[in-house]
Amino acid sequence: MSLQVSFRVVGLYCYFQNLQLDNVTETSTVKQVLDAIKAKESAFDYAAVDLGGKEIVDTMSYSYSDSSLKPFNATNPSNGFRDLSNHIASTSLIWQYYRSVTGSMNGSEPFEIKLLSRGQPSYAIQKLNFNDSFFGALPTGFEISTYNLTWRLVQIQMSPENQAKFMIAKANLLSSKS
After folding, report:
1. How far apart are CA 57 and CA 60, in angstroms?
2. Labelling 123: which of 6, 58, 70, 148 has CA 20 to 30 A away?
3. In angstroms, rounded to a whole number, what is the distance separating the alpha carbons of residues 17 and 145?
4. How far apart are CA 126 and CA 129, in angstroms?
């Protein structure tokens, strides 16, 4: 089985439109989708850390080239390797993902609907198609054509306790690579 996914990492000029991902379904986790993209697109990579039971993305990288698809709202990026990582401090930069679906109803032009969840569940457990019932279900008759997954670094305030957890997890990640 194959699922169509559009994927973007803001800041890296990483954009894959309408990828056909094998062995991924709408109930696969965001992590399983990332792993499938990583296996299919060698220019993309990522690393994660475990924060005492909550796995989070720490670093994403992408090698942009002449054959890369330019993101729809980007200027002309130069070729080369790019990587961005979480930055931990009292004001931190942390990777956050957004999920949505593109589809249509009754022959309408395609449009996008965000899939929402309370908070930011770990990407390792969040299902690609999960939409919190608190926010409402997708409209009856909506036909999904593509799942969309977007990652960006967001700035947040972080307590000293959480900073320490992140730093320990990052040290564990780095020591496992050596």
Report:
1. 8
2. 70
3. 12
4. 9
Q: What are the DSSP calls for 32-55, one per residue? A: HHHHHHHHH-TTEEEEEEESSS-E
CB burial class (10 A; 0-12, 13-18, 19+) of residue 124?
Answer: middle
- Please list, in sequence order, all residues whose beta carbon lies within 8 angstroms of the beta carbon of residue 30, skipping any fewer than 6 positions away: 97, 99, 123, 124, 126, 127, 128, 149
What's phi and psi for 135, nearest 5 deg? Answer: -90, -10
For residue 118, count other CB atoms closer than 10 A to its CB: 8
| Per-residue pLDDT reduced to its tens digit, 37-87 | 999 999 999 999 888 788 999 999 999 999 999 888 888 889 999 999 988
Distance (Å, rounded) from C-alpha 118 to C-alpha 115?
A: 11
Which residues, 6+ apart, have CB-to-CB distance to 34 below 8 Å? 46, 57, 123, 149
Residues found in the chain? 178
Full-model pTM: 0.86
